[in-house]
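I'll show a record.
***
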Amino acid sequence: MLHYIVCFSYVIYPLFLILAYTRIYSKLIGGLYRNHDLPIKRNILNRQFKVSQPNKVWVSDITYIYTKEGWLYLAIIIDLYGRKVVGWSMNERITKELVLEALEMAINRRKPARGLIFHSDRGSQYASHEFQRMLWEHGFISSMSRKGNCWDNAVSESFFQL
C-alpha cells in the first residue's frame, strides 16, 4: 500500500499541480467511445452520493491529459464514503485494460465485500464483457449513468476539475 501512496504523491499529484499552475485543465471524455453495442446497466446509484460506510459504493471515470509525449489517459475509482481515490491507472491508450487495472488496484487495496455498487458512465471500457465479468466475479453490482447525464456521475467527474 505504501508503494501506491508514494506513486500517487510522486506521479499524479505533481501532474495535477502542474495542470493547475499552467491553467491547462484536463478535459472529460464526453461522448467519445460511447457508441457501442455492449449491454448497459441500470442506474442503481441514482445520485445517492451520501454513503454511511466505506466500500459500499465506488464511482469511476476516465479523463485525458495532454503531455509533451502525447495524450495520457487516467482512470480513477473513488469510494463515496470518504471521497478518496482507492484505485487508479494510467495508459497511453483508452482501453478496457485501463479500467481493469484501476479496479484491480482498488480491490487489492480495500478488499471490499460482495454487494458493493460500482457506478460509472456508459463507456465501452466499463461496459466491456471483461470488466463486467470482473465485477460479477467479486459480487459487485454494476450501475451506469443515464444516457447523456453527467450529473449521475458528478462525484467522479468533479474530481478532475482542478
Summary: Strands lie at 27-28, 57-67, 70-79, 84-91, 117-120, 141-144.
